[in-house]
Amino acid sequence: MASKYSVKLKTIVEENKLIPLHTSSDYETRLLTTADINRPALQLAGFYNYFDPSRLQIIGRVESTYLELKSDEERRKCFEALMQWDISALVLCHGAAVFPECVEMAEKYDRNVFTTPEDTSDFMANVISSLHVHLAPRTTMHGVLVEVHGEGLLLTGDSGIGKSETALELIKRGHRLIADDAVDIRKVNKTGLVGTAPELIRYYMELRGIGVVDVRHIYGVGAVKPEGAIDLVVNMEVWEDGKMYDRLGLIDESTEILGVTVPSVTIPVRPGRNLAVILELAAMNNRQKKMGYNAAETLASNHDSAIDAGVL
């Protein structure tokens, strides 16, 4: 997966606790830009058509066994042919034997080589998952992200509509703040969105008339969360007399973010409405729908059955 985003090779190395055998002069700044990996079995056999050196190169038991059958000089040629390419890094998995020729060529061409005792399949699964998260498509939206009853609610609406005040009431009721004002959103898979706050303003909240407050310091670490899924978009708008609002819940609204369709609801705001209680209910209702139960559809079905039976 080619990406316009990048992650430092050093970050992946530290996350996976890789043991360095040799690090290049640009190791601290070396970037990975693709979530694809490569097992260079064909390359070690001399086939370099369509070879992409930007991918993380992984040697497992199959490649190691093949190399063990080679003489020292043949192995040296195999590794030299590979290291001549500007590969991002080479990782030896499964506690595979460290061939002296590999380290020799890494030093000669200044390449990154690491080893790990982890099983090849397990390491590949973990590193691909990690790269997909780091390189995920992303955007930033104006809004507030809170976790309510395990559901991630993204509150949107015009500035001053009351998003932060509603989030504050939810925090006081035991729920958790993820981001206020700006929400960084990443598409981690085809149907999943994860939101977090920009590092500079993480756990801070702005309240008109009060100013900026640190939610983590005031309410404790249990009142915040570094990131969370986005399960429901709540569009908050000023109540308009005469406007038709959905009163039964039979209309399925949705919002598209980064190509992912997320369920949404529109909540009209006016003095006297307890928005925190309404959003708690919205979160529980959304969870019920995901579990296969829709109260509005059940009521409509019961109503139709009553009419058919002549009760109504």
Strand order of the largest sheet: 14-11-10-8-9-15-17-16
Instruction: Determine the fraction of residues in helical runs and give it as a percent range.
Output: 25-40%
Shape: elongated
Number of strands: 17
Give the uncertain stretches in residue-range form. Answer: none
- Kindly report how far apart the N and C termini lie: 58 Å
**Secondary-structure-derived class:** alpha/beta
Largest sheet: 8 strands, mixed
Name the beta content range: 25-35%
| SS summary, helix count | 10
Task: Give average pLDDT, whole number.
Answer: 91
C-alpha Rg, in Å? 27 Å
Protein architecture, described:
With 312 residues, this protein is α/β, with parallel strands linked by helices. The chain is built from 10 helices and 17 strands. An 8-stranded mixed beta sheet has the order 14-11-10-8-9-15-17-16. A 5-stranded mixed beta sheet has the order 2-7-6-5-4. Helix 7 crosses helix 9 (275-290). It starts with a strand and ends with a helix.
